[in-house]
Amino acid sequence: MSSTADELREEVRQRYAESARAVTAGSADGGCGSGSCCAIDEGEARLFGGALYDAGQHEQLPEAAALASLGCGNPTAVADLREDETVLDLGSGGGIDVILSARRVGSAGTVYGLDMTDEMLALAQRNVAEAGVTNVHLLKGVIEQIPLPASSVDVVISNCVINLSVDKPAVLAEIGRVLKPGGRIGISDVVAEDRLSPEERAERGSFVGCIAGALSRNEYEAGLEAAGFEQISVEFTHQVADGMHGAIVKAVKASDPETKGLPVVQPAAKAGCC
Question: Which CATH number fits domain 5-260: 3.40.50.150, 2.40.128.120, 3.40.50.2300, 3.10.20.340?
């Protein structure tokens, strides 16, 4: 029997809550057995998590933030963050990317971290405080319904989280909604080769293991185009399973949606965020 969307989401939430509790308790493996909830086995743990950040970045982080890193890349290295920008990190976890982003955009910039797991949000709050960054706001919610106004963000980043969504078209549409015209994404994610069917992806790993729910490269590109993006690229960086890769996903929101035949999103009232 296939799992329902609610069951899958709850399975993901529980897995990441377990990881946050393990880090808080001082477990070196982050609660996922081999350094990452997404690692397939101990030998492949290096393909996920804090090992994908360089030594200079680790020096800027509390130890718990690095231990709680469960991603498949380093989105802050590809998003080209600039002073004074507003950044949104989808699935911000223990806070590694919000802390690094906060330092990049400076005191005049703003970074939002969105996560659905209370335990991860609590861990991130402690890590942000320990790091001494004051321009971070942590939000509770799901990435299919981002609690921010339309056209309010310059850059959206995410690290191995969109593959875990139960409604990826909704996520991509929401990213397009909250980005300002001309805003951009710098996302690390697991992406399948186009030759693999959804069934073949599921054979290579579980949904909560960041494999079964991954989009193919063509699906990612088509989804971003449908959500109003241009200058789309999906670049494989390293293989994490047969036909499955860590990837860098970049795109720019069309400056004028009407030129692409897309509806213009009107700004909503500003949501409470702090």
Answer: 3.40.50.150
